[in-house]
Specification:
The protein has 525 residues and is of the alpha/beta class. It has helices at residues 29-41, 62-67, 70-77, 176-192, 208-211, 217-227, 231-236, 265-271, 285-296, 373-376, 400-418, 432-447, 451-463, 465-477, 488-492, and strands at 2-9, 17-18, 26-27, 49-54, 83-84, 137-147, 156-167, 196-200, 204-205, 244-248, 257-258, 261-264, 278-284, 307-310, 312-316, 326-338, 348-357, 366-372, 390-392, 511-512, 520-522. Helices cover 29% and strands 22% of the residues. Belongs to the 5'-nucleotidase family.
């Protein structure tokens, strides 16, 4: 008796992709589906074979930054695989109301740390099939089975396994139905890029000559957003929240000026196109100093390594020789100051103050620094980061564009709920943390009714650690359908109509005001 299997794993992108950077030839998921169907058509009976998937599916990819993984759910079920393996990278709160209808049961209250009998005794003799990534390859397997003696626990055992690896080529036949679905999905993604995600009161200037030679408002804003993206995960590890962010200006692309006014999702993805995850390193003071010296060493050349920071204050002197330009590094902390000027104010306005001078030493305290995986591997001159302990690695890290999208969606959701002043809050099923975030936002809205207090409210919203934590948390615990321009529910049902605009009030859009605050000060500037 023979059992036929098809296996593939780790898929992220459905759009056409080049196999060779020097060639214009591409492949896509439509051709993958065509190869898969050709193999299945050779089976005597379709039910006599299994199509298996395992690994990452929902992200990370720039497409998933737009759809939050919804388009992958459609792609994953289209080939009709009978078993889904370990989905190692999925949404923090899967859409339970949707996934069960696809045959996937809930994993709530399942102890993922429970030992599996026999697993700890694996001596390396277990055959594992790994079948490439991104719809580029798949494995065709044939298991020869034989019957066991009467009374055995297993009725059949595997006698032999043969396999063949299939590589998707530009010349591979495409599945007509998948090609049509792909066109619809890519059109929906393209349309969503036009959707507004925030309003900015100032310009977001990411021109190279500006962001690669000095502190920039845009760099500060993006760094502030990602600083607290992993605070929950770090606290669960017993590490506490992150201490700061250290990325480079080359992270920000677009080379343009956006705003004042509406900023679209497409604008955000133009600025943040890279697909390496954001990670967290554990660094000593000496490593931080070395990395800063490396980042500032090529000034005034417009190198991508110029630093972008959050949670830190750096004083440097551009007139000094490279390698000796950093004058001091300080860890910042939030301090709440009482405001006695008006009874109408919120009562406290946080400000950032120097909490600790970071010495250039490998001894003493270690700092939790958010950065890019690309930089953590020592690229772009950041050799100081290479080999340092990872508290959040690239296997679980998220794309910077995904984090920013979550923050903006969460902000819009909180604004929408806070604006429903006449709605009975008890009738809305929201998580306790979400209700707390909404309450804080309502207090800010009250403050903004008074002109002399509006600036203080804006400062609080921009700088407060709880503000960034709130918005990121809300996006992972609540359904964003009411504010998400990409209607994932319709896409998963195969009913997306590009002619229908997913409407929401622009009054709910978050208002941002990126600014330069002196966190990266050139004393000769």
């Amino acid at each position: 008796m023979k059992l036929s299997l098809i296996h593939w794993n780790d898929v992220y992108r459905v759009s056409p992709q080049r196999l060779n950077p020097l060639s214009d030839e591409t492949i896509d998921v439509g051709q993958f589906a065509g190869v898969l169907n050709d193999i299945r058509d050779k089976w005597v009976k379709e039910r006599d074979g299994l199509t298996l998937f395992s690994g990452d599916v929902f992200s990370p990819s720039v497409e998933s930054s737009v759809t939050r993984g919804s388009h992958m759910d459609t792609q994953r079920h289209k080939p009709r695989q009978e078993l889904i393996g370990a989905i190692a990278f999925g949404p923090e709160k899967p859409p339970y109301r949707i996934i069960p209808c696809k045959g996937v049961s809930s994993w709530e209250e399942y102890d993922v740390m429970e030992p599996v009998l026999g697993a700890e005794e694996d001596c390396g003799d277990v055959l594992v099939v790994k079948s490439g990534t991104d719809f580029r390859d798949l494995s065709e397997l044939s298991l020869e089975l034989e019957s066991t003696p009467t009374g055995s626990v297993r009725k059949k055992i595997i006698k032999s396994i043969t396999g063949k690896r299939h590589t998707i080529l530009p010349s591979s036949r495409a599945s007509g139905s998948m090609k049509k679905l792909l066109e619809t999905l890519l059109s929906s993604v393209s349309e969503t890029l036009k959707a507004p995600v925030c309003k900015t009161t100032t310009t977001i200037d990411v021109r190279s000559q500006y962001i690669r030679t000095g502190e920039s408002a845009a760099g500060n804003w993006f760094a502030d957003i990602i600083r607290h993206a992993y605070d929950d995960a770090l606290c669960m590890k017993g590490c506490g929240v992150s201490d700061g962010v250290f990325i480079c200006a080359g992270t920000l692309r677009g080379d343009s000026i956006y705003g004042p006014g509406i900023v679209t999702l497409g604008n955000i993805l133009e600025i943040l196109p890279f697909e390496d995850p954001v990670v967290v390193l554990q660094l000593d003071g000496a490593t931080l100093w070395d990395a800063l010296e490396a980042a500032l060493s090529t000034w005034p050349a417009q190198e991508g390594r110029f630093p972008v920071i959050s949670g830190l204050r750096v004083s440097w002197d551009s007139s000094r020789e490279p390698g000796h330009r950093v004058l001091g590094v300080w860890l910042l902390q939030e301090r709440e100051e009482s405001d006695n000027e008006t009874e109408h104010s919120r009562g406290t306005t946080p400000s950032l103050i120097d909490a600790e001078c970071i010495e250039r030493t490998s001894e003493g305290r270690k700092y939790k620094i958010v950065t890019r995986h690309y930089m953590s591997e020592g690229h772009d001159g950041f050799l100081a980061f290479k080999g340092k302990p990872l508290l959040i690695d690239d296997e679980v890290g998220q794309l910077m564009s995904s984090i920013v999208r979550k923050y903006l969606l969460g902000s819009q959701f909180v604004n929408k709920m806070a604006g429903m002043v006449h709605h009975d809050a008890s009738s809305i099923e929201l998580q306790p943390n979400t209700m707390a975030a909404i309450s804080r936002r309502k207090r800010q809205l009250v403050v903004q009714h008074w002109k002399h207090a509006a600036r203080q409210a804006l400062d609080w919203a921009r700088r407060s650690r709880s503000h960034y934590q709130d918005q990121l948390s809300v996006c992972t615990t609540e359904h964003m359908t009411s504010v998400d321009a990409y209607n994932g529910e319709e896409v998963r049902r195969g009913q997306y109509d590009i002619r229908k605009n997913h409407r929401f009030s622009q009054d709910d859009l978050p208002v941002v005001s990126p600014e330069i605050d002196g966190r990266l000060k050139d004393v000769r500037g």
